[in-house]
Amino acid sequence: EVQLVESGGGLVQPGGSLRLSCAASGFTFRTYWMSWVRQAPGKGLEWVANIKEDGSDKYYVDSVKGRFTISRDNAKNSLYLLMNSLRAEDTAVYYCAREIKLGAARPFDYWGQGTLLTVSS
Amino acid sequence: EIVMTQSPATLSLSPGERATLSCRASQSVSSNYLSWYQQKPGQAPRLLIYGASTRATGIPARFSGSGSGTDFTLTISSLQPEDFAVYYCQQDYNFRTFGQGTKVEIK
Predict the structure, then answer these.
(1) Which residue has better confidence, A102 or A63?
(2) DSSP letter, residue B56
(3) Are residues B22 and B73 in contact, defined by beta-carbon separation less than 8 angstroms?
(4) CA-based radius of gyration for chain B
(5) Any residues with CB less than 8 A from the CB of A107 and at least 6 apart, and which?
C-alpha cells in the first residue's frame, strides 16, 4: 500500500525557517517525481515545487523561488522541503504528492494527509 | 503561468441529479495534461480523471471528463451522497496550476 506521511509542520515566526519531511512507503520511491502542494486555510490548492527521480531537476512556483528548497534522499525514501524567510502567506497545509507518469503527463496519484504550517508572530 | 478558471464556484444540486463542472485554461493545454481531483473536508485530494477523459483506478463510471484546447468539463451523471465535495482541475502542460475549485453542495 502506498503511503506518504508528512511531518515537521508547526508555528513559526515571520522570517523563520522550517523543514518539512515526507516519508514514503509501499512503492519504489526512487522511480517517481515528487511534489509539494499546499492549501491555505479555506482556500484552493497550489503546487509549490517538484523534484525529479534522482534529484537532478527541481522546479518551483514563483512565489517561493529563492526561499524554499526541495530535496530527497532516495536511500531513506524521504522527500523534504526546506523553507526559509517564511511569510504569513506561506501559512497552509502542505501535502506531499507522488507524480505518476501517464504518457507525457504526470498527475498526482497519491497524496499524504498533510502537515500544517502556521507563520505568525 | 497558465491560469485555470473553474465555474461555477458553487453548484447546488440534489442527489441523483447531473453535475456539469467547467474548467477553462488561459492558453491551450494539451488534453493529455488535464486532470481533475475531488477533495472532501479534512481529506487530501483524490485523483479522479487524467488525460482529460481517463478515469483513475477505482473511480466510478458516473464520473466522466471531456474537452480539449482551453475548455474542459467534468460530468457526474447521477450525484451520489458521497460526491458532494470540492472539485479541482489541474494542468501540468507548463509547470502545474490548479483551478480555484467548484464546490458541489446538497440543495
Answers:
(1) A63
(2) P
(3) yes
(4) 13
(5) A99, A100, B35, B47, B50, B90, B92
CA distance A73 to A68: 17
Q: Which of B39, B53, B34, B46 is nearest to B97 (CA)?
A: B34
At A44, the pLDDT band (50, 70, 90 cuts) reads very high
A35, A62, A105 ranked by CB distance to B32: nearest: A105
pLDDT tens digits along A96-113 = 999 999 888 899 999 999
How confident is the model over B57-90, as pLDDT tens digits? 999 999 999 999 999 999 999 999 999 999 999 9
Give the other-Cβ count within 10 Å of A103's Cβ.
11
With residue B64 as reference, give the H or E element that holds it.
strand B63-68
- The pLDDT assigned to A39 comes to 98
C-alpha cell at B59: 473511480
Residue among A47, A61, A109 minimizing CB distance to B47: A109
* Grid cell for residue B62: 458516473
- Chain A CB contacts of B88 below 8 Å: 44-45
